[in-house]
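[Meeting: bench + compute handoff]

Bench side (C.D.) handed over the final construct sequence. Compute side (W.E.) agreed to return the predicted structure before the next meeting so the bench team could plan truncations. Sequence as handed over:
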Amino acid sequence: MHTVERLWQYHRTHHLTKHPNPLLTLYADTEQELFDIAGIPLLAYFTMKFIGFPMGFYEWWVCHQYIVWAELAGHSGLRMAATPPNPFNWLLRMFAAELIIEDHDLHHRKGWKTSANYGKQTRLWDRIFGTCRDRVECYHANIEWNEQVTMPIF
């Protein structure tokens, strides 16, 4: 999408914001929005069904909420070491492949053919394919690990 011109024409609008924030999370062309809202969830549903793991509505809904959380957090503009819920974050952290909010923010700072940090759930594939950009603010030594941010549900 970032290197193929025919796809970039639909994704380019989303990258006009260099510092994402919640209000601009869904800022994109109509074609991309339709694909994100209907295309990707349907592809995921039919792929799972094809490989023998069909999901009912409630399983699909829980998975969709996970994706919504990751999308909103990735475009929040916050500077904190928050990761998408993942039972393997401890393992990903060993390879510096865990995803935090700043990673997607850095992805937005570059555009056509120069971007990095493509992963939306982990940086594992970015590590493997050499598209992982160094963090500017939330690198390990700069994080105050004793300062916890709580997010009360109720």
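W.E. noted at the follow-up: The chain is about 45% helix and 0% strand. C.D. will use this when planning the next construct.
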